[in-house]
Amino acid sequence: MKDGNPIKILIADDDADDRMLIADAFEEANLSNPIDFVVDGLDLLDYLNRQGKYEELKDQDLPGIILLDLNMPRMDGRAALAEIRKIPEFQAIPIVALTTSKSEEDILQAYNLGVNSFITKPVTFDGLVHVVRILSKYWIENVQLPKAQ
């Protein structure tokens, strides 16, 4: 939390079990930032553009950080990342790839497309809580982020 305003975290992940585990990990890590979930790249772009079912968010700030799964249906994380980085209003939002991939090709491609960090999802819940604590320490407590628009 900076300046009394908690940073909203947007998580793009198509797997309902992973979404539940991530939410539980944030709770276990005592992270009280507001979290929203989207299920694929098209949903992510609608959320950011405040279109479709997200029109009611027009008066709300954009998320302060996005956690992005790379492997999702309809539009995967790579394609969504490429689109997000083309839109000036979204370019300053940090995007962390949080994915099952360990592929060197995926890592290189994600960084070339503009991801700020690449983290392979841990296989245990304790590992996920540890990652959430590190993300919180770095992106929420230490890094100076631009003011949400």
H/E order of the elements?
Answer: EHEHEHEHEH
Write down the Rg: 14 Å
CA-CA gap between termini? 16 Å
Q: Quick one: overall form?
A: globular
Biggest β-sheet strands, sense, barrel? 5 strands, parallel
Helix content bin = 25-40%
**Uncertain runs with pLDDT below 50, 5 residues or more?**
none
Q: Approximately what portion of the residues adopt beta-strand conformation?
A: 5-15%
Helix vs. strand class: alpha/beta
* Main sheet: strand order: 2-1-3-4-5
Mean pLDDT: 90
**SS elements, strand count:** 5
Number of helices: 5
Describe it.
By secondary structure, this protein is an alpha/beta fold. The protein contains five helices and five strands. It has a five-stranded parallel beta sheet. Helix 1 packs across helix 5 and helix 2 (41-49) packs parallel to helix 3. The model has no long low-confidence stretch (mean pLDDT 90).
Secondary-structure map:
Layout: E1 9-12, H1 16-28, E2 35-38, H2 41-49, E3 65-68, H3 77-84, E4 95-99, H4 104-113, E5 117-120, H5 125-142
Helix pairs in contact: 1-5, 2-3
Characteristics of this structure?
149 residues; alpha/beta; 5-stranded parallel sheet; 5 helices; 39% helix; globular
Q: How is this structure best summarized?
A:
Helices cover 39% and strands 14% of the residues. The chain is built from 5 helices and 5 strands, in the order βαβαβαβαβα.
